[in-house]
Amino acid sequence: MSKLDNNHLRHLALEVLLNDVKTISYEGRKIRKFAQTVSPSLFAEIIIHLDQRLITRFSLYTLLSLCSKNRDTNRTLKSFLDEHNMHAITDEKQLEQIASQAIQENAKQAARYKTSPKKTLEVLHGQVYKKYYGRIHEDMMTEIFKRLLNKNE
After folding, report:
1. Which of 14, 54, 70, 103 has the most CB atoms within 10 Å of its CB?
2. Can you give the three-state secondary structure of the chain, one letter per residue?
């Protein structure tokens, strides 16, 4: 599970910013308000957390939206993450427990993994994301699901 390389990180940050700016301007807000409410230091901290995989890509979208709506420019990233429970789950053992539980709860679909791996992974991911809304990196969970499902064959 490698860290994002610099080019990928820049691309991701730019993509998120462009999408958020579009959303904000479509909601009738001025883009200038977004720039005023998300300080460069807060944005830099968000990008560092993304690079260190302490937040997920989904959390990044949510954070930028929350920051743009927040009027307290001195608010810390930690306060946003704590208030909205957006810290990524990165502990391998905890992720394995989550994956095992999803497989047990969806045993019928898990049994179809050999014949329909893509559909099985989609269903299992869906179940996990319902419970852990935006807190799990998709690539990490996919790797764990594959390992557990291949072990069960």
Report:
1. 103
2. CCCCCHHHHHHHHHHHHHHHHHHHHHCCCCHHHHHHHCCHHHHHHHHHHHHCCCCCHHHHHHHHHHHHHCCCCCCCHHHHHHHCCCCCCCCHHHHHHHHHHHHHHCHHHHCCCCCCHHHHHHHHHHHHHHHCCCCCCHHHHHHHHHHHHHHCC
